[in-house]
């Protein structure tokens, strides 16, 4: 049984200030996506992203704590929103089911945002592949985490999985047992 939430993934910004902040956030994410697509994650700095978006590195850090967060992170209040959704979703449903539903919905929202940042969806496959990879990574981590009975830190799993993905998924990565 999968729980269904009516909790909105993100509220639409209302004020001009909020719309400008959202536009800057998207500009930074688009710049990060384009630069990483051209050079690879290891060859892109926060300064490169800020320059491409025509903002200062300080402005970048007002929106994201790292270049990875610009690519894969959500909104600043994301954790609180996820916590609220978990707390209010389908009382009586097992916690793992609720977490799976909330995290899957969140992964889809992140993927949708990544798709919206890319080029022409008719001619540019990269944003689609990146979005699918992001969703796949989160889902795999959730499944592994649930299979471990929640004994492994989920955030660490996601970080390790994205690090391995950024490195090209080498066979002897931190994800493999005995490679730690």
Overview of the structural elements:
Helix 7 runs antiparallel to helix 8. The chain is mostly helical. It is built from eight helices and no strands. 63% of the residues lie in helices and 0% in strands. The radius of gyration is 17 Å and the shape is globular. It starts with 15 loop residues before the first helix and ends in a 14-residue tail after the last helix. 21% of the residues are buried. The chain has two domains: 55 residues, Arc Repressor Mutant, subunit A; 89 residues, no CATH class.
Gist of the model:
The protein has 2 domains: 16-70, Arc Repressor Mutant, subunit A, CATH 1.10.10.60; 78-166, no CATH class.
Features of the shown structure:
180 residues; mainly alpha; Arc Repressor Mutant, subunit A; 63% helix; 0% strand; disordered N terminus
Ordered list of secondary-structure elements with their pairings:
Elements: H1 16-39, H2 46-52, H3 57-63, H4 67-72, H5 78-88, H6 95-117, H7 126-147, H8 154-166
- Low-pLDDT windows of residues: 1-12
Query: What is the total tally of β strands?
Result: 0
Number of spatially distinct domains: 2
Largest sheet: none
Structural class: mainly alpha
């Amino acid at each position: 049984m999968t729980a269904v939430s009516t909790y909105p993934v993100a509220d639409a910004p209302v004020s001009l200030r909020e719309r400008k902040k959202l536009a800057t956030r998207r500009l930074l994410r688009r710049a990060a996506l384009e630069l990483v697509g051209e050079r690879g994650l290891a060859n892109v700095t926060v300064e490169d992203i800020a320059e491409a978006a025509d903002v200062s590195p300080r402005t970048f850090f007002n929106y994201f704590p790292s270049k990875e967060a610009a690519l894969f992170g959500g909104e600043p209040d994301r954790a609180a929103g996820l916590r609220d959704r978990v707390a209010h979703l389908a009382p009586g449903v097992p916690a793992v089911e609720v977490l799976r539903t909330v995290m899957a919905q969140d992964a889809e929202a992140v993927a949708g945002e990544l798709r919206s940042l890319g080029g022409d969806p008719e001619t540019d496959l990269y944003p689609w592949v990146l979005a699918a990879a992001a969703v796949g990574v989160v889902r795999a981590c959730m499944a592994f985490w649930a299979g471990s009975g929640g004994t492994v830190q989920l955030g660490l799993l996601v970080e390790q999985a994205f690090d391995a993905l950024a490195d090209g998924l080498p066979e002897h990565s931190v994800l493999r047992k005995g490679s730690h």
